[in-house]
Automatic annotation (TrEMBL), chain B:
Enzyme class: lyase
Naturally occurring in which organism (per UniProt): Kocuria soli
InterPro entries: Aldolase_TIM, PdxS/SNZ, PdxS/SNZ_N, RibuloseP-bd_barrel
Gene: pdxS
Family membership noted in the UniProt record: Belongs to the PdxS/SNZ family.
UniProt-annotated binding residues for D-glyceraldehyde 3-phosphate: 169
Record protein name field: Pyridoxal 5'-phosphate synthase subunit PdxS
Lineage: Bacteria, Bacillati, Actinomycetota, Actinomycetes, Micrococcales
RNA-binding among keywords: no
Positions of the catalytic residues: 85
HAMAP family: PdxS
Amino acid sequence: MNPGITGVPRIAVLALQGGVAEHVEMLRELGAEPVPVRSAAALSSGPWHGVVLPGGESSTMDRLLRRFRMRDPLAELITSGVPVLATCAGLILLAERIEDPAPGQTSLGVLPVTVRRNAFGRQVDSSREEVSTAFGKVDAAFIRAPEVTAVGGDVRVIARRGSSPQGAGAVVAVATDQVIGMSFHPELTHDLTLHSEFVRRAHRQRHA
Amino acid sequence: MTDSTATTGSPLVKRGLAEMLKGGVIMDVVTAEQAKIAEDAGAVAVMALDRVPADIRAQGGVARMSDPDLIDGIVEAVSIPVMAKARIGHFVEAQILQELGVDYIDESEVLSPADYVNHIDKHSFTVPFVCGATNLGEALRRLAEGAAMIRSKGEAGTGDVSEATKHIRTIRKQIADLQATLRSNPDELFVAAKELQAPYEIVREVAETGKLPVVLFTAGGVATPADAAMMMQLGADGVFVGSGIFKSGNPAQRAEAIVAATAQYDDPAAVTAASRGLGDAMVGINVADLPAPHRLAERGW
């Protein structure tokens, strides 16, 4: 089947490491065509109507992106304007600035936010809780989660921890018209709220 | 969810961290310096212990949980998750490790068992546990006790991957057998549960889903990028490497190569590239030459 002529948006799911299968399953359920991408060759097999950067270990993914020469083409793909959904480590990859990188850790630097890794403590502090976002309530798992400590450009805060988007809690989700990034994992609880918005955007991208 | 209060230590939260480690390599380290080398090489987590299995094997004696100061030093040194080992059944070592803030406890046969009857009641902890298994029944018994991640045992400290191969193949085959039983004679699942010596409800779940309800890594004898890629092709979610890295000639380079081969395990050209120029692998011991009392995989039940 020629991907260019189907009615289904094709989503590149970065699959070097981490919680990939959960995103793949949810994107299928929402009628998109997820494609796990583990090499530069796979990344160049567009067209892509969306990109998902999953959770995992951000320092590992960063190292592998550079080793496999995927970093620059991935940054270019995102800069070209395709919709992006990023969870946890994926959000760290997007960030312009990481407050506390592992030694030598870099990011794609394509979203004007600052993040702090493991901002809420170690695994014993990991938790499941409801988060109110601008797109609806989300049943979210926070696993050694980062927080967003500064936003710039056209980035909007869409969720704070333990309160409304307008409240004073730590920023745990942000969005632009292109990107939805969150420090938690809706894919671990199979909450489709934010993925649905992402797939709507991917459909629009396909028709653009 | 019925309210907005946060829930820590639930099965979903405990299993969730392991889900985020998938496709990665967890490396044994005995010093903060080794932990930094592992992090630089792209490890998704480190396992803190005071002797790697090859040295435990060579030196003999009782192997116990590491000194808390050593674990603190490793926790301070890296930003990736830190795991640490407790003896089988030693729930107080586990309490100490939880107190120290480690991210996962490995109730491990590599250490000397503290209880030859009971494993730790892992439900009573907030910190998650990973446990070893040589077959499906053993894996499911550990899940019933609250384990949030399983690793096939292999034979630690040997550099011989044959036992790891046997254990992952065994677990996968037993899962396939359960699926076949569910399709043909579902009423035989009760006997299957009896034979596996595991709770019926978990046996039924595995038969229906065709996989464990938690992440399954392999361990024990992985020493090369090709070993790691083989484990992944056999269906592992990720790989533990113990003595294989820091008992080799060039640990940093070998660690990085094993990470790369684990990520691109199904691409022979990539695994070939990762295998080049790594210097000496750990010398190792053939499992067949190990007298039965020295086989660690037989600890735990």
